[in-house]
Automatic annotation (TrEMBL):
Region annotation Disordered: where it falls in the sequence: 1-21, 108-138
Ranges for domain C-type lysozyme inhibitor: 26-101
Annotated SUPFAM superfamilies: YdhA-like
UniProt source species: Moraxella bovoculi 237
Protein name, entry field: Putative lipoprotein
């Protein structure tokens, strides 16, 4: 039972938002970076975008799943003057923005996830120190 664990006599299933497996990092052209957190049960993805050439710094976008021929595609059309699109397949992704019918795109490649922020590291097993007796009578 992969998504279950016991709390007393109750079982519960963790929500998709809590699964680490749905978080992916991408490095893009023009020193851009994209973090993608997919929420398959909600048919959406949450993106954190850093694209200096587009003046987006830690910009968070909620994107809805959209039809695609292959891979996965998500769009955000909440702003009437712009449309964001994220399309990924395998280890590659493309971030696009359409403004006034002009499309700007950045090619991206999947990378390792960065380490968690300070203070968020999982606890590591610290080896127990062995105390040596102060005096050993022989």
């Amino acid at each position: 039972m992969k998504d279950h664990h016991k709390h007393g006599d109750k079982h519960h299933k963790h929500k998709d938002g809590k699964r680490k497996g749905n978080l992916q990092a991408y490095q893009c052209e023009s020193d851009a970076a994209v973090m993608v957190h997919q929420l398959p049960r909600q048919d959406k993805a949450l993106l954190k975008v850093n694209t200096p050439s587009w003046n987006l710094n830690d910009t968070r976008l909620e994107m809805m799943a959209a039809t695609t021929g292959s891979g996965e595609r998500f769009v955000n059309e909440t702003n009437p003057t712009s449309k964001y699109e994220w399309h990924q397949k395998g280890d590659m992704g493309v971030l696009s923005i359409t403004i006034n019918d002009k499309i700007h795109s950045l090619n991206c490649e999947k990378t390792e996830l960065p380490p968690p922020p300070h203070g968020k590291h999982p606890k590591k097993d610290v080896p127990k120190q062995t105390v040596q007796p102060a005096d050993k009578a022989s």
